[in-house]
TrEMBL record:
It comes from Sporolactobacillus nakayamae. The keyword DNA-binding applies. Residues 1-69 form the HTH merR-type domain. PANTHER family: HTH-TYPE TRANSCRIPTIONAL REGULATOR ADHR, REDOX-CYCLING DRUG-SENSING TRANSCRIPTIONAL ACTIVATOR SOXR. SMART domains: HTH_MERR (SM00422). It holds the Pfam family MerR_1. This is DNA-binding transcriptional regulator, MerR family. PROSITE patterns: HTH_MERR_2 (PS50937).
Length: 124
C-alpha cells in the first residue's frame, strides 16, 4: 500500500509517518523504482505501535530509545521492560492527576447548580 493508504489505515498524518521513518521509529519503508514508499503489514504494525506509545504520552525521545534497545535484541529485554515500566508509572501519575481534575470540575459544576442558580433566580 502507498502512504495515503497507510495514513488512512493508521489514522496518522502522512507527515507523521515520514517523521517516524526519518527518526527510525519505524524500520525503513521499502520503495519502488520511483522511490515511492510501499508499506507492508509489518510497517503498519510498527506505525500502530508508535501511535499507541505516543497516545500513552511516551515522548519521541523515549520511543527512539526504546526502538534502539529493541534493535539490540534479546540482551536488551530487561532494559526495555524497565523503560516501559517507568513509562507506565508516569502514565498512571498523569491519569491520577486527570482524575483529580475531573473530580474538581464535577464538584464545581455541582456547587454551581446548588448554590449559584438559586441566587440568580432571586435576582430576576
Amino acid at each position: 500500500m502507498n502512504i495515503n493508504e497507510a495514513s488512512q489505515k493508521t489514522g496518522l498524518p502522512k507527515s507523521t509517518i515520514r517523521y517516524y521513518e526519518k527518526l527510525n521509529i519505524v524500520p525503513p519503508i521499502k520503495r519502488d523504482k520511483n522511490e515511492v514508499r510501499i508499506f507492508e503489514e509489518t510497517d503498519i504494525e510498527w506505525l500502530f505501535f508508535a501511535k499507541q506509545m505516543r497516545g500513552a504520552n511516551v515522548s519521541i525521545k523515549t520511543l527512539v530509545h526504546y526502538i534502539s534497545l529493541f534493535k539490540e535484541g534479546e540482551g536488551s529485554i530487561e532494559s526495555r521492560i524497565e523503560l516501559l515500566t517507568n513509562e507506565l508509572l508516569k502514565l498512571q501519575e498523569h491519569i491520577s492527576g486527570l482524575q483529580a481534575a475531573e473530580r474538581s470540575l464535577s464538584e464545581k459544576i455541582e456547587k454551581y447548580r446548588t448554590h449559584v442558580i438559586p441566587v440568580e433566580k432571586k435576582l430576576i
